[in-house]
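ENTRY TYPE: protein
CONTENTS: sequence, structure tokens:
***
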Amino acid sequence: MQPIISIAGLSKIYAGGFAALKGVDLDIRRGEIFALLGPNGAGKTTLISIVCGLVNPTAGRVTVGGHDIIRDYRAARAMIGLVPQELTTDAFESVWNTVSFSRGLFGKPSNPAYIEEVLKALSLWGKKNARLVSLSGGMKRRVLIAKALSHEPQILFLDEPTAGVDVELRHDMWQLVRRLRDTGVTVILTTHYIEEAEEMADRVGVISKGELILVEDKEALMRKFGGKRLTLQLAAPLAQIPPALARYGLVLGKGGSELVYHYEGEGGGQDTAIADLLQDLGRAGIGFADLHTEQRSLEEIFVGLVSEREQNQTGEQG
């Protein structure tokens, strides 16, 4: 299937010489939720701004639904809804008028029934006549999403959509994003809350210093990099790890009251290693009261990838 967004060799160098993007290649699949992760200044917002036609690229090509974003700007932009980070709204307009006006900007005919559907989906129907100035920050964020959806786009960009909103509203937005995906809308989000990507994304891209360093299906990413750890709560504290257990690379923690064993992936080999460890603990006279396993989180994977990239770049410069 042809990607709904295709990005090839995309670069952006600002007037001062800062390279915000460096040869980015990326295809976004139709109907997926794609999470773009990266630290501040990594290039996330610049990438979104170029695709949405707000910033001109220095080099490269972007197509949206087969439309070149420069040569066929109107057709490409009409397919996109954008929810920016900033709460930019006309403070003294009503919610209804604001969302309806946004629809008209894209040349769409009036459709009160659709606007009503969007406002109800975002729990804004009870506020339809309220002026934006009277709304909370979370409600204003919902209005931005309603504006982005007003012209029935096939693609929705969410740039830090839940920044500054409470946990309950964040979960409401997660549910909305899933519903949109289920109706065929492609969703691309950037976020500092990596649990959002872990919760929602089908695929994850990691960008650092303008370079896309990884794009992977989320589940495959978790399998590939999501190392596991076995934590044993000891029956009695240990002062040090016996030499006979050195080959396991165990870490002694919590004042000697727990042992942590790190291992990668799944399969018979790891099962055997864990069984051997437990046997060797018994031979060493070390008892444990409890044990549990944990999967490495997406946040830990992300931090590790970015740190490794920065270390490699530092080594190359040295």
Observations:
- The chain has two domains: 5-223, 227-295.
- The longest helix spans residues 298-317.
- The domain at 5-223 is CATH 3.40.50.300 (Rossmann fold).
- The mean pLDDT is 86.
